[in-house]
Amino acid sequence: MSIAVDNIHEQQQQLQMQQQHQQQQHQQQNCMLKEMVNDRWRIIERLGSGTFGDVYRAVDIKCETQSVAVKRETHSHGKERTLSREKGYLLKLRSVTGIPAVHFYTKLNTYTLLVMDLLGPDLEELKSYCGGRFCLRTACILGLQMIVRLRALHSQLCLHRDIKPDNFLMGVGKTSNTLYIIDFGLAITYRMPNGQHNPMLKERSLVGTPRYCSLNAHNKLSLSRRDDLISLAYILIYFIKGHLPWQGLKYKEMGLSLDEAVRQVKTDYTSGPKAAELRKDLCHQMVQFLDYTLNLRYMDEPDYGHLCRLLGDIMRTNQWSYDMTQLDWYNI
């Protein structure tokens, strides 16, 4: 009886601690509102949150029509600080089209702030706005810009390692037709100082997002350029079909973790007994796109031009123009 009472007491303490932690987070988020950053930007509203912390919209007090995004990362013991890494890659890639500019960075006692360009909606939001999928033409045009972004990153020896629709955003104003890539918190350099490719090693845990990451990530292998492109292939199928077969799995009923359940189903659909089902209703160029990325070896230099030609061939075959104003979200 005393054991049961002790368990209840322990659960109550844990719940109380969780509530206190949530309350502290809420207070911290509210404290940021109307706060000034570097005596230049006034924080107006909280836009969302990620694994690193929270994102806010701020306005330039000298020109209140100009907004920026402010990322805030709270320092926690034992937690890797990702904003420092992100700032480093954004500065390294600042000359690349489709990379948001860094305006300010500071590391304080309890948190770090990164001020950067405020962009438009991400591709996940736009897909939902368009009824849950994109037409093939829109998918191809977006895919071409995504290939160009990844080729530019890889040419600077940068691996993104978390390619997903949420990390591709459209610009605003004059750059509203430019696709940006964001969130470099998991990025790494894939060559060593001596110029040699990083060796393939075992990771401690999965790197990336289970829905879009490669089987190499599920198998906890070091990632390379091929893995960014495999994720891109999955994204294009997701855009065209509206879903991927390994979404919404009842993994607990399967007696598996989410990672293991997705890995199992993904294996069946990419190279196992259900491979034909994943490729069903895809044009042959899109099937070739997927298969090309899946067949790349760890240290291979991808042929980005080949991937662009596959999508360009779809456009030519259907006599589609590259007019960005005809993308799905402009015609609703």
Order of helices and strands: HEEEEHEEHHEEEEHHHHHH
> What number is the mean pLDDT?
91
Name of the level-1 CATH class of the largest domain: Mainly Alpha
Query: What is the strand arrangement across the widest sheet?
Result: 1-2-3-4-6-5
Distance between the termini: 63 Å
Oligomer: single chain
Shape: globular
CATH level-3 fold name of the largest domain? Transferase(Phosphotransferase), domain 1
**Computed structural class:** alpha+beta
Number of strands: 10
Radius of gyration (Å): 22 Å
Helix fraction bin: 40-55%
Strand content: 15-25%
- CATH superfamily assignment of the largest domain? Transferase(Phosphotransferase) domain 1
Give unreliable regions as ranges. none
The structural domain count equals 2
The biggest beta sheet reads: 6 strands, antiparallel
Give the helix tally: 10
- Reported CATH architecture of the largest domain: Orthogonal Bundle
How would you sum up this structure, described in words?
This is non-specific serine/threonine protein kinase. InterPro entries: CK1_Ser-Thr_kinase, Kinase-like_dom_sf, Prot_kinase_dom, Protein_kinase_ATP_BS, Ser/Thr_kinase_AS. Pfam families: Pkinase. GO terms for molecular function: ATP binding; protein serine/threonine kinase activity. It is built from ten helices and ten strands. With 332 residues, it is an alpha+beta fold. It folds into two domains: 28-58 and 67-117, Phosphorylase Kinase, domain 1 (2-Layer Sandwich), CATH 3.30.200.20; 123-330, Orthogonal Bundle (Transferase(Phosphotransferase), domain 1). A six-stranded antiparallel β-sheet has the order 1-2-3-4-6-5, with helices on one face. It has a two-stranded antiparallel ribbon with strand order 7-10.
